[in-house]
Amino acid sequence: QVQLVESGGGLVQAGGSLRLSCAASGRTFSGSIMGWFRQAPGKEREAVAAVTWSYGMAYYADSVKGRFTISRDNAKNTVFLQMNSLKPEDTAVYYCAARRAPNDGTWFRVTAYESWGQGTQVTVSS
Asked: How high is the mean pLDDT of the chain?
């Protein structure tokens, strides 16, 4: 089991930026994937982005492409989500997630991840 702790959320105006961090402890696997998800009030949890630990291959939801960047620091077991040009519709609780298995085309599925962080609130004001 991997323990995940997110940080970096907050309140920002539309057009601003935030950087989220996710610190992982416990056993991580070279082929595994780290993902960011978000959940707005009254909505289902949705995928935002994911990255592989080993090669740093990144995947993005269409809604954030060109605005968000996911990266990882293997030495620190930390994954980042740089969010630029934020919009009010980006407001949500953001969760970090980890899965052991390599990507098989399911990186965007909530059920594909075994470990979850507690979430961090991101609020974008208009």
From this structure: 93
